[in-house]
Amino acid sequence: MPPTTRTSSFLAACRGEAHDTVPVWFMRQAGRSLPEYREIRSRHGFEEVVHTPELAAEVTLQPVRRYGVDAAILFSDIVTPVASLGIGLEIRPGVGPVVDEPFRRPADLDRLRDLEPDEDLPYVLETVRILVRELDVPLIGFAGAPFTVASYLIEGGPSKTYDRTKALMFSDEATWHRLMERLAGITLASLRAQVANGASAVQLFDSWAGALTPSDYERYVQPHSRRVLTELADAGVPRIHFGVGTGELLGLMADAGADVVGVDWRVPLDDARTRIPEGVGTQGNLDAAAVLAPWEVVEARVRDVLRRSGGRPDHVFNLGHGVLPATDPDVLARVVDQVHREGRTDGTVADG
Amino acid sequence: MPPTTRTSSFLAACRGEAHDTVPVWFMRQAGRSLPEYREIRSRHGFEEVVHTPELAAEVTLQPVRRYGVDAAILFSDIVTPVASLGIGLEIRPGVGPVVDEPFRRPADLDRLRDLEPDEDLPYVLETVRILVRELDVPLIGFAGAPFTVASYLIEGGPSKTYDRTKALMFSDEATWHRLMERLAGITLASLRAQVANGASAVQLFDSWAGALTPSDYERYVQPHSRRVLTELADAGVPRIHFGVGTGELLGLMADAGADVVGVDWRVPLDDARTRIPEGVGTQGNLDAAAVLAPWEVVEARVRDVLRRSGGRPDHVFNLGHGVLPATDPDVLARVVDQVHREGRTDGTVADG
Prior knowledge:
- 2 copies of one chain form a homodimer.
- Chain A has 15 helices and 9 strands.
- By secondary structure, chain A is α/β, with parallel strands linked by helices.
- The first copy, chain A, has one domain (about 10-340): TIM Barrel (Alpha-Beta Barrel), CATH 3.20.20.210.
- Chain A has a 7-stranded parallel beta sheet with strand order 1-4-5-6-7-8-9. Chain A has a two-stranded antiparallel sheet with strand order 2-3.
- In chain A, helix 11 (about 215-230) links the parallel strand 5 (about 200-205) and strand 6 (about 240).
- The longest helix of chain A is centred in the middle third of the chain and has 24 residues, at about 175-195.
- The interface of A and B includes residues 161, 215 and 290 of A.
């Protein structure tokens, strides 16, 4: 059985409810930094792992066993739901999602039908069910936000500048919004199904939204992420909303309907707090590269993040982005111990 | 002869002195977006262009002729000075700078001797001299800042996460500072020689500094960029200090000794202004991808940047990053016309 609010510091923090110890997990805690993950991947491809519930569950569990983190996150990819619709999308190791024929014209919208999670993603839902049985910490459901998924479909792969995505957005706003509506529907269906099968929280990854100006985010992206987050409200689970380079967007990302906003390492957490309304928590924000440093340096930086979180009960300790492949798992284990030892909350939400 | 402050709106804006019309130029205005540049590159490699004064001068002049921009910037690469020391660095088209044997150990410091611009970069200085004769607008000298150059040397090429750079910084601070001191000396020597040969301003590109937290920037980077900028003060030319994703660093980048701070598109210009002390100007910040939009959209966005610059005489209109290769030159020409038509200053520096 998944833990209740009473026993989960992670869920309590997401809800801003009283608890003693700051919870901690790491984005991409499952993955290439772990030898036990690399061992599995030496025998199975990335997509094979995602599509095989026993393997996907196993790699999700690996960091929970090793680190004693306060939450697990479904091992999957941002594009897994949309890829399940048969649009010619492949995840290439070392590259990322690659789309054979990128989305560029209004007619490409027809390539996106509605997602039927039971038929399209049975392996994801089975993974969720296995995990909920096996875990003694909450499982976070996982989805890419409409903008970030759209950027892969339109660019055809990873991008530094998102030219084609922005060009479509700016030059054919009607097609843009129709694409985003379809992707929002797919994201929502995937997250609802994950919650229905036992996920205790969700994280919406709008990893690349930070490429946008605040006014473009507000006009072209926020309405669609808001639809996902607000329609999920009735599922009753905390909603975390995360992106990289989003220092100027934190307030807008909160306002889209998040319970918790992910903060990347660029913005000191106490500064970030002033940009996020009361009633919405924070998650982050140790530089993922900082854990490559000697332990004394790491320790001081963990302490700095805890200090800047101000003892508030609505903070979840995490990195500012995903665990880097070069990370030493022993250092992450020490970070978890330190957060659990030193991260005390004062039990109430103070004035920002 | 290069124009004096009296006749150059660009130099007046850099100095916060009275002038009527907002000046405009574009980072990477010379380059792949121009058919006349692609024509030259169809016959000459990138490094050949940089190393051949007649060609480097020609491609620098192309956008000045075509657009009527208020400044030219030396066509070069961020790593050109350090590459001239024979460290096994090559600029690969479509990839960027690649270092055969990346810098990882203290012994690698010995690979960086002092730069002697007259001997190491004679082609750069000859290019500057040709340009100063040919141009009727100021020439901006060009250099990579120590951190950004260091990131190429340490990573061995372009990076998304700068893990190895940060790992060296955090784990061997003494070696880090010695490397940065050497790179600062090289940057300084290159810029001084460009000014001695006639450049009327300089721009220090710390393109990737935005990957750092403010406190890391302050500790590991700012002292070295400050040395470059303050030792250049006696050269008497305006110093522009630019980076991408530097919303949290704007004040620190100004404080390093800049006359003008470059602002990327993520931070609305009026917000950016509140982070930069009075006495320091701004440059930017139209999203480089915005010019891929239909003209009505571009026009409204140009107007928005001008509005947010508040009629201050210490603003230089530019993009938030370099011109994208897919850009239509005709659109940039219209942007220049619009800025010259609509960008009026009120002649005095208002309170921030």
